[in-house]
Amino acid sequence: MPSLITQDVAVRIATDVQDRPVPEGRRVVSDTDNPAPQPSPTSSSTSRSLTERDIAILEFENRWWQHTGQKEEAIRDAFQLSPTRYYQLLGAVIDTPAALRHDPMLVKRLHRLRDARQATRRARARGTAD
Predict the structure, then answer these.
(1) Which DSSP category does 64 fall into?
(2) Cystine design at 85: which of 10, 39, 81, 93 (Cβ 3.0–4.6 Å)?
(3) Is the pLDDT higher at 124 or at 10?
(4) pLDDT in tens, 38-63
(5) How far apart are CA 77 and CA 71, in angstroms?
(6) Which pLDDT band, with edges at 50, 70 and 90, does 79 fall under?
(7) Is pLDDT at 14 greater than 80 in this prediction?
(8) Cα separations (Å) of 32 from 88, 106, 113, 117?
(9) Cβ(62)–Cβ(108) under 8 Å?
(10) What's the Rg (C-alpha) of the chain?
(11) Cα angle vertex 35, ends 56, 24, to 5°?
């Protein structure tokens, strides 16, 4: 299966993930931890520009269906990340104004999907709490 990113970019992505400073108010999350908390509106990630990794994640999300096999396999092949970590990064990326400027239709679609999943979880939690 062809990768969306070159080996050179994959190495830079992996290095960037390890070397990136943790923004204030955030914690480092390993692949086995629970998902990271949502960034606060005052987080430094809201004013940053997109990195190559961020752009690669958005492009992958826009075209992942072109890959054969499961999406989780494609995530591991393209980014050498666990699906959990990938979705944490994706969530942080789509919350930035730079991502909205880069691909507004994709980011709005991803926001709608995330909002729908959260609403389903809330409804399920209310149903079990009664």
Answers:
(1) G
(2) 81
(3) 124
(4) 444 444 444 579 999 999 999 999 98
(5) 10
(6) very high
(7) no
(8) 12, 28, 24, 22
(9) no
(10) 15
(11) 80
